[in-house]
Amino acid sequence: MTDPIRIDPATGRKIFATRAAKASEKIRGKGYSIIEDEALKTLPPPPPGAVFNAAEQAKYREFKEARAGAADYIRMEGEFSKYLEDVYSEPPVERPALDDECEILVIGAGFGALLLWYRLMDAGFTDVRFCEKGGDVGGTWYWNRYPGIACDVESYSYLPLLEEMGYIPSMKFASGFEILEYCQTMAERFGFYDRCLFHTTVEETLWDEDAERWTVKTDRGDAMRARFVVLANGILTTPRLAKIEGMETFKGEAFHTSRWRYDVDLEGKRVGIIGTGATAVQIVPEAAKIVKELYVFQRTPSSIDVRDQRATTEEEYATWPNEPNWAVQRRERLALISAGRTALQGNDDFLSGKVEDYKQRKQHNEDLSPEELIQRQLNTNFRIMEQIRARVDAVVKDPKTAEALKPYYPYGCKRPTFHDEYLPTFNLPHVHLVDTAPTGVSKINEKGVVHDGVEYELDVLIYATGFEWMGTGSFNMIRGKDGRTLSEKWSEEGTKTFLGIHSAGFPNLLIMNGPQGGGGQFNFTRVSEMHASYITWVLQTMQQRGVSTIDVDKAAEDEYAEHCAEMDLLSAPLRDCISYYNGDGKAKPGSLAYYGGGARWHKRRMAAQDSMAPYLFTPMARAAE
Ligand code: NDP
Asked: pTM of the prediction?
């Protein structure tokens, strides 16, 4: 057996072998199927005269207000902590606790961390260590392995480093299983496994001002020191459960979608699923293929757009590798259109550069104000939602079920979903939509779910109740210069960062994909790219200047927070519904994702790099004094 910690004779540094054995090796699955039925692959046209008039606006408002205050979630603590157990790997590899030092300690081993490691390696940083809660790499794609899982952003733009890896995904929307394997291949190729401590959860990160080092304590007894800490642990990392009376009394099997229990055989069982977000939309058609009865407990319907999955063509396999930077260019093109539905559909001719634009442009004579532009977008989104609602009527046979499946909120306000099998699934006799609007499921007993006086007896209950958005759970364990955690600072002062990456009083802490960090784009890989490149620049700049710490100016941070709030408020009408994007209607403007767009974020980044004004450096000598 390989020693879990060895010394590399060439560098004197530690090499780790802590990747857990894969108990999950037998799991194989697919995501979206290729559908031949043309009727399922096209949206009906918008009804004639569809305009977002006062009556329609009132309907949207009523839909929203009925649900206000209904969302109530709990963390998986105490008796619910069992739902967080790692069901995918063998038990953690035994290893001694570490109390040594490294230059850069990264929390997380998902796409963000893999990408960052590639950039750091390229820039010559080698003393880098990763801590990961799971037993292997992949992050989101490690934890989420439910049947039907697939990428929602076209995989040719979503998977990072395709050119470097010489890889082309097999489907336009690759399955989660293919993506997980891709992460594992990246990790093998980049020597990532040697540097990662798996099954290691960071519990405390303290800044030592005198030593100018972070002390990082973990659940494995480690107390490591690092000059830099990078948070790369995701945007939708912490799973959450709906808070439902009596949920602890259920006697059947229950689990959350991000810890799929493949040991629980669903064949021939009565299965209930709570929630109808992007996850449930992918699971329902697959679960319906095996279970005896399926009860889908819905509070708010998702918008179910056309998926139109396809396999990568022979021509694409043959030609793309000959086009320099084919994937980088494709991702940039996708970013150009990522505001609307077109991007999510992924217009292939535009994305591959065969045509110059993805739509026919209309000539506008007048200059529109930002408010008018938003109104125009709302009108367009209304027409799309009308098409999505018409699709429900066209596919779902039972009128009551069809009515319940129609969403009334601006397109994109909740994460738009795509599926060509989800709606037809509700025509199957053993699949039942239980409309629990507007309050949602509020009672569970030992036999199953009780709603409106009806008891739904279940053998298995699946929580598809999502994740905390922009709340990794790490923010309340990082203590900066004044002893406050990031969460404490943000709850007292409002969310305050610079570019979403620095936060004043937390020197040498860099946050990837956190609040205010250039999110609000559908393709988070692009955000990760931008952040990885910026973080590499920070480290190189510090090396060149011979400085020991970096912090940010409070005034620059305050100005950036104001800017984030302004951008959020400007586009808020586009997100006027109850959604995790706006903290279920409770988040302060500008406190979560950044809504200024990638180009504006980039401009601010470049301005900071040019002037260097926002940065506060400590000369190297001070630490040595
Ligand atoms: P969501 O937060 O989107 O969905 C949670 C669901 O639970 C909602 O439908 C919510 O209803 C429902 N819910 C909560 N409490 C109750 C209750 N008491 N009774 C009934 N229903 C309840 O989580 P998901 O896991 O679906 O998706 C999270 C995100 O993860 C996605 O938006 C997407 O960004 C990402 N994702 C990406 C995928 C991809 O790229 N392939 C696939 C899957 C997920 P309500 O809407 O009323 O609050």
From this structure: 0.95
Choose one of 415, 434, 452 to mutate for the ligand 1 pocket test, by most ligand atoms within 8 angstroms of C-beta.
415
User: Beta 213-218 vs 223-231: how paired, if at all?
Assistant: antiparallel
DSSP state of 471: -
Between CA 52 and CA 368 the distance in angstroms is 18
What pLDDT, in 10s, does the model give residues 241-298? 999 999 999 999 999 999 999 999 999 999 999 999 999 999 999 999 999 999 999 9
Q: What is the DSSP string of 51-119?
A: ---HHHHHHHHHHHHHHTTT--EEES-GGGGGGGS--SSPSPPP------EEEEEEE--SHHHHHHHHH
How close are the terminal C-alpha atoms of the chain, in Å?
Answer: 45
pLDDT in tens, 466-506: 998 876 568 889 999 999 999 999 999 999 999 999 999 99
For 576, the token pair is 């006027």
Query: Concatenated DSSP letters for 542-582?
Result: HHHHTEEEEEE-HHHHHHHHHHHHHHHHHHGGGG-S--GGG
Instruction: Report CA(489)–ligand 1 centroid distance (Å).
Output: 29
The ligand 1 atom nearest the CA atom of 297: 20
Q: What is the DSSP letter of 361?
A: P
Index of the ligand 1 atom closest to the CA of residue 176: 41
* Ligand 1 binding pocket includes 277 (Cβ within 6 Å): yes
Residue 80 phi/psi, 5-degree rounding, is -90, 0
Distance 237 CA to ligand 1 centre (A): 13
CA distance 589 to 568: 6
- Is the distance from the beta carbon of residue 143 to the nearest atom of ligand 1 less than 6 Å? no
Q: What share of the chain is helix, strand, coil (3-state, %, to 5)?
A: 35, 20, 45
The DSSP secondary structure of 142-160, one letter per residue, reads HH---TT-B-SS-HHHHST
Return the closest-CA partner of residue 118 out of 137, 133, 101, 136: 137
The preferred substitution site among 171, 257, 274, 465 for testing ligand 1, maximizing ligand atoms within 8 Å of CB, is 465
